[in-house]
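Entry 14: structure prediction run for SusD family protein. Input pasted below.
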Amino acid sequence: MKLLKNRCLPVFLLAVLTLSSCKKWLDVQPKTDLKQEELFSTEQGFNEAMTGAYVSMTKEATYGRELTFGMMSVMASDYSVGSSSEQATRLLKPVENLDYETEQFRSMIDRVWLQQFNTIAQVNAILEYIDEKKGVFSGNKYGLIKGEALALRAYIHFDLLRLFAPAYLSKDNQKYMPYVTAYGRTVTPFSTVEEILSKALADLDQAESLMTGDLIGVKGAADRKVRMNLYAAKGLKARIYLYMGNKIQAFAKAKEVIDAKQVFLMLPGTVINTDRSFHTEHLFSLYSEPFEARALTVLEPKTNLTTTAPYYFTQEAKLKGNIFGDQPTDIRYKSPMMQQIKGFLISHKFLYPDLADESTTLNLQRNYIPLMRLTEMYYIAAESAADPATALSYLNTVLGNRGLLPILANADLQTEIRKEYRKEFFMEGQLFYYYKRINASHIEDSPVAQMSAKSYVLPLPENEKIYGAR
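Run finished. Output tokens:
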């Protein structure tokens, strides 16, 4: 038996794991710190530690803002920074310009790195003890918890790789970051891009084998879409394989997720007023009680003596024309997805202020942070299909679902896929990764005239370069 070290892990005391709704992971402060030997003595302790990792991911430094509607969306030119509030223009211009050495931007990047590795440490603590405590689990809970932890470790490392290392197309043999699998003070050596991806895929292979039989679409059951579930693990494999240029494997995994029919695209004409992030289509998302209020704070225009633009603001002409292509039938653009607030057209993808008084009767699907969508599997299948007809069928399925006409066989498929990434993942942080993956020479609407391989690589924190501290 391993010596249980005298270390403490924050415990998020949540009862939601046992509730029938089981969809909300409340962002609360831990009531106590427990020694690991006590925490990992019960199944509930492992559940609470796993929930703590998900809560860690909802912090503003990562998916609660910067890696979704914040920093990553600014880098991808989702916003009109020069027309935003005066404070936003001053603080976000370096981000839009990809001026990584500016103090404000550099601090933002450092917080991303540190918070991500904080979450990885929580996951690794679970993995360090779960095998020796296998006997405390009932049913298939051991496989689910361990599978979630492994897949979550792969997910976070892959996002770090997409930020802090060159794209696969321009990779070299340099070592850019660690793939941390041990919990403790030991410093993990850095690895190459190839090594990181190999380790992530190995974690996902094991996660898949452990979560066999995981059903995320069962009506009335716990909402497994807010956990790193089996189909999110398969979807992440598809995402990684496409990043590597392995289109055969990317297509196979994307098709596997689509064909499993655990999550479905909404039917054309579905009323989306109460589910504006399309949570029913999520493969993996986070839930955070403060998320909508946090988003509203920076998306709502400020009013003092005069009304000023929001912090994150996109001009109406850019929204309508450049991003959504002047297509008024696109359900991602028309009301209720885009609405006026104090005279400014604002995305309501994450907002429900117009329905606040009716929220108790409408069962609003609010406060979800989408990290992987079923539509992405259709885009991956379209991009990696072996023949044009199959590719078109996958892409046109999404277009029809979103209220758009199908594209014709003579259309430029890659251009149409690019347009879809910009519309579907608006304010979600995925677009910059797309441009990086294809090694795009320019980000649309970006003030950066020419992108290079170096432009896509964020700098490591200074203390990481000096001490290897994590």
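Notes: The beta strands are 8-11, 32-35, 177-178, 190-191, 282-287, 302-303, 307-308, 338-341, 344-347, 368-373. Will compare against the previous run tomorrow.
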